[in-house]
Amino acid sequence: MDVYGSKTLNEFDKFNPVRNLWRNVLVVAISDAIKVKANTIKFNDFYASKRFHELDYVTLPNADFAKICEYAELDHNLVRKKITKTLDDMEKNYDKGNMPSMPWKRLYQSKGLNRESSGNYTPMSKL
Is residue 8 a part of any domain in this protein? Predict the structure, then answer.
């Protein structure tokens, strides 16, 4: 164990199943928030007036999130700050110009639906 200033650096982290359990709880909470944020960005018209507990749990200060981070041996303020930055980056980087205004237009113009015949197709009128 080396000491640098007021911080202690462990060369190897000891296996701690309780800490790993609580870190996995955080992973699930964060992934749920990311999924909800992706859907709210994608379908903004529908979700504009709705509020989600998954997002509130990881972005707003609360004692439960702080306790989970404490069990996971993480700083809750730093975790919340990084999650908020990630969610904000998702919103900033969402490119709205790549989708047509009419969903059926994209399907109608796709090459997959209007592809040429392979030659193995015989129309019913010729049978």
Answer: no
The percent of residues above 90 in pLDDT, for the chain, comes to 37
Q: Which residues contact 17 (CB under 8 A, 6 or more apart)?
A: none
Q: SS3 of 101, please? A: coil
Q: Tell me, yes or no, whether 90 lies in a domain.
A: yes
Please tell me whether residue 66 adopts helix, strand or coil conformation. helix
Would the pTM of this model clear 0.70, i.e. be above it?
Answer: no
Residue 123 tokens read as 């129309």
Cβ neighbours of 89 (radius 10 Å): 10
Work out the mean pLDDT of the chain and round it to a whole number. 76
Expressed as residue numbers, the domain containing 41 is 16-95
Secondary structure class of 32 (helix, strand, coil): helix
pLDDT tens for 35-67 read: 998 888 888 788 777 888 888 999 999 999 999
The count of domains in the chain is 1
The dihedral built from the CA positions of residue 96, 98, 102 and 103, taken in this order, carries a sign that is: negative
